[in-house]
Design brief:
- By secondary structure, the chain is an alpha/beta fold.
- The chain has one domain: Rossmann fold.
- It contains seven helices and ten strands.
- The radius of gyration is 17 Å and the shape is globular.
- The C terminus is likely disordered.
- Bound molecules: adenosine-5'-diphosphate.
- The site of adenosine-5'-diphosphate (ADP) has 12 residues, from helix 1.
């Protein structure tokens, strides 16, 4: 579970980007975060993703508060527990599909090479990219590149996926395909998903939507749990 209590963020230029944010995200929940450009969405998910621990208030991830943890601890927790997916995929262009997905495992000391191979092949199949293992990102469509990025995000079996505008660079048909993959991961593996989006149709895939405006969080009164 993620729990944010009275969190505020002031950037070094004294700009108040977040004010008094309270939010709980249950294990297995699929949450959409919506809000206009500049409202504080990235600032919030940087805190949730343990990329920024310079904030006021408290953030508990699985009941742990990492506010005063060093960079090595933060990066180890991120590597174990959180998978990131970005709007522009952020793949390494000179690496193949297989190699891109392998990267998080190189830092994970718990798996043997044989285990790695089978888990990589498994996630490649899950995102529908079997046969593309040796392709380079430039040989793939945008949707296929985002599938690679999702495979890379889930290869370490994270509890949480943080996705920042994952369909922002995709057409609407491809966006739907990508959202079906997220829904499948959420339903099959109970992966908690926190997704920033501008797109109401994309947000509708989530169980719950919260809104940010001028650094303040508003809940969706009409929240429903997907049946
Ligand atoms: P969003 O993701 O909703 O577009 P951001 O979280 O990126 O919004 O930004 C929220 C506000 O904080 C914006 O007004 C932005 O200009 C400001 N901001 C973001 N990063 C910094 C920074 N490093 N220094 C100062 N202001 C920042």
């Amino acid at each position: 579970m993620l729990r944010i209590k009275n969190v505020g963020k002031i950037y070094s230029n004294n700009f108040k980007a977040l004010t008094d944010i309270n939010l709980e995200v249950a294990d297995g929940e699929f949450l959409a975060v919506m809000g206009p450009s500049g409202s504080g969405k990235s600032t919030l998910i940087n805190i949730l993703g343990l990329l920024d621990n310079d904030y006021t208030g408290d953030y508990f991830l699985s009941n742990e508060n990492y506010k005063h943890s060093d960079d090595a601890t933060l990066s180890a927790v991120r590597g174990d527990e959180i998978g990131f997916v970005f709007q522009n995929f952020k793949l390494l262009n000179s690496y193949t599909v297989y190699e891109n997905i392998e990267i998080p495992l190189i830092y994970s000391k718990t798996k043997t090479i044989t285990d790695c191979k089978s888990v990589i092949n498994e996630v490649i199949e899950q995102v529908g990219l079997s046969g593309k293992e040796n392709s380079l990102p430039k040989e793939l469509s945008g949707g296929q590149q985002q599938r690679v990025a999702i495979a890379r995000a889930i290869v370490n079996n994270p509890d949480i996926i943080i996705a920042d505008e994952p369909t922002g660079a995709l057409d609407s048909k491809t966006s739907l395909e990508i959202m079906n993959i997220f829904t499948h991961l959420n339903e099959t593996f109970d992966t908690t998903i926190i997704m920033v989006t501008h797109d109401k149709e994309v947000a509708d895939f989530a169980m719950r939507t919260v809104y940010i405006r001028d650094g303040r969080l508003y809940n969706d009164e009409k929240s429903v749990v997907r049946s």
